[in-house]
Amino acid sequence: LISGMMEIHIARKRRTSNAMGIQKTMPRAIVAIILQATLLVSSCITDTLQYEYQHINKNGWAKNDTINFDIPEVTQSGLYSIKTEIRCLSTFPLNHIYIVRKFSFNTPFIGYTDTLRINTDKKCPSTEHSGINLISFAKTDSSLVLAKGQKGQVEMYHIMQKENLPHILDLGIRIKKVD
Question: Is the CB of residue 165 less than 8 Å from the CB of residue 99?
């Protein structure tokens, strides 16, 4: 009889502590919602102007294939770094690749062309994606001063002796404001 009363008393305490626990967690829930909303809004404010990959034809990157990137409107004037990235299979046969990049921005007009050498010596670790070994190579090599309101385009093509470069999957560009 006494053990039965103790069980009832313990059960009542649990219910009471649960009710109090709900009251204690309500302010935490509100704080968590406010924190998530703040993170959501702040994630929209970024120094990255463009971060995009374009898929390369599965038959390889042909010499006459130009990869285009449309650059959105610049929201903050300043200095921007440019990073070019290649994703390829681990079986990519070359040690480097030369890429021509043509930049053009409007109002005020900025246009220039450069040639970029990206080493693909496979010394960086490969990552596995869907059972395929991928290697990513990148080079940050130049910067641009851009004005608020400018939009642009970047065209890229390779100038290798081989007509077709196999095993390249994606070509990417990242344009980020320098602090």
Answer: no
Q: Which among 171, 139, 175, 169 is positioned nearest to 53, based on CA atoms?
A: 171
Residue with tokens 């290649």: 86
Question: Which is nearest to 81 in space by CA: 151, 145, 143?
Answer: 143
B/e letters for 11-45, b = 16+ CB within 10 Å, e = fewer, are eeeeeeeeeeeeeeeeeeeeeeeeeeeeeeeeeee
Q: Are 80 and 176 in contact (CB under 8 A)?
A: yes
Question: Does 175 have pLDDT greater than 70?
Answer: yes
For 98-146, the pLDDT digits (tens) are 999 999 999 889 899 999 999 887 655 455 444 567 778 888 878 889 9
8 A C-beta contact, residue 126 and residue 135:
yes
- pLDDT for 37 equals 60
Cβ atoms of residues 145 and 49 within 8 Å = no
Distance between CA atoms of residues 37 and 106, nearest Å: 35
Both structure tokens of 134: 């991928």
Strands (DSSP E) contained in the chain are 48-55, 61-62, 67-71, 78-89, 96-105, 110-119, 127-129, 132-146, 152-158, 164-165, 168-177
